[in-house]
Amino acid sequence: MEKLSRGKLDAALDSLKKLRKEEADGGHFPIILCYSPGLDFIIPEYYLRDSVPGEYVCPKCGKCFGTGEKKETVIGVRGYNFIVSKRDFDEIFEAYNICIKKGFDVEFELHCSNCCLKDALPFAVFKFRKSKEEEYTASYPQMRNEDSGRNEALISEKHFYLWQYALAIEFLTEVVACENGTNQDEACLKWIVNVISRGLYMNESRMETKTRWFTIEKSIKGILGFSFERQV
Amino acid sequence: MMLPANAVFELTARCNHRCFFCSCPWEYSVDRPTKELSADEWKQIMRRYKMHGVSHVSFTGGEATLCDYLPMLIEYAYEMGYAITMITNGRAVDDTLLNAVKKCGVLMSVSVPGLETFEEHTGVDNIDNVLSLFEKCRDMGIKTVANIAVTKKNLPELYENISYPILSGAEYVLLNRFLPGGRGMKNTEYMLSNDELNEMLDIAEEVLTRAGVNGHIGTELPYCVVKNPEKYKRLHVGHKCGAAKSFFITDPEGYIKVCNHSPHRVCHWTEIETLDKNEYWQRFRKGDYLPEMCKGCKYLDVCDGGCREAAHVFHGRTNDPDPCFVKDHSPLLYPR
What is the DSSP letter of A178? Predict the structure, then answer.
């Protein structure tokens, strides 16, 4: 092992950081290991959990939640089963899985309902990192839950429908992460044509093309922070 | 019956290092596993655990790479859709294994306890090979974690101990304070004092910030021991015990334990249906193990008072104080 002086060691670490930042700024998604508790909060086997969704620890306050027992005593009648449906979680988790498999830096956290209500937090937070410095967050549920008492706090540019997450994920996997040697512009064009020409998620097949385009653009920009350059 | 998401498989009790800090319980107790499960049995376990909600498997030991069928198990876990981690000292890693690791997207956690003190810690002169392994993995696109057990011996070189693996390609750093357990029970004089624990955190944060890399402290620290908990941005310092909640262990003979530190076998894997009614398992599931000294503490919602199994091994009960609260670490006093 070649030993470096402290000065040279620090210089090497500085260079490494610079290199990593350059990679990040270059549009490359660095793989950062998700060792945060987020990985434990996902519900990979949600369908198996049925009435007892399992125990989770809230990253905000550290409380365990999610068991049938604690649902009654801690979370109260508005248990998280009621707020977050199986179908929604399945969709989010699929998206999460795709990202993990593709090597993207992504985390998924669940918060306990006490914190959600007290601090107007969403139940599920879905975080992407474009780079270490830039983070994009999407969350669930959105303002559709009119009776949740959290409407105002949740209405913002950073909240999206589930199918918009799906669009963003698809964009990541099919365009951003396209194989080396593939022309990214071509991949992007192919993807857009594909999305525009099919019914969007949620069976919104009657949506006009202009509206579809707006929706796609909003999802990609809002969730991932990418903008399309229009070329007429 | 749902199991924690991460199942840790101790494939073998055999090891080609002799780390003085080794916490494997069989290095201290008389219950050294005499036989190992076969590959077919591990596959059976993976199929069974999958039905109980496990999504992530970690292969360890002893030294997992001494298990001949490790590559086969990795591929099997991958085909079953598990996320996979392998914990190793790197000494017996060969190209066959690395190819399986690469193919299956395995996260490789490599033990690097010291640079100049590596041999003192492990009994083996292998630091150059370990650093080369990080480089090789980086070149192959394999994600690696530098796994560093911190003791009084390597604290003086911790800055370098973190830096070199990062410069060699480690993408993440995992620090574990040396805690009594296993062979480490005979070497408790190398445990860090609380001031040294804080020094460890400060050094780690400094290196990680400079390198732009993240890391975390593996074994939970009592919140009150950390002098400046808000200070650490690159380093995640945890205070809650994940045993039986986010992970659990299956030992070389197929017995379930709540944690790799644990001297207590909860039940055999074929009896997992009984876990719901198992007092020991439920104690960890529910966090019903707080030390007397922590009662009334305002940080209980974020802290479990340190490592509960280290307290168990060190003092005798899971609700005893974390070993860091004992001033005298002389090995002559233990076990208590």
Answer: P
